[in-house]
Amino acid sequence: MTLKITDVSSWQGNYALGSNGEDGIIIKATQGTNYVNPNCDFVAQQAIKQNKPWGIYHYASGGDASAEATHFVNNIKGYLNETNKPILWLDWESGENAAWGNGNWAKSFIDKVKALTGSQAGIYTGSDGVAQTAQYLSNEAALWFAGYPTMSDVGWSPIAFPYSTGAWKTLTGWQFSSTPLDKSLFYLERGAWDKIAGNTNNNVAPPKAPTPQPPKYTTSGKNLEQMAGDTQAGKTGNGAERQKLLGAYYTGVMAIVNERSKDITATQSHNILANETKAGRYGNGANRQHLLGNYYNVVQGIINGAASVQSSRIYTVVSGDSLSGIGSKLGTNWQTLAAKNGIAGSAYTIYPGQKLKY
Question: Considering the entire predicted model, what is its pTM?
Answer without folding.
Answer: 0.59
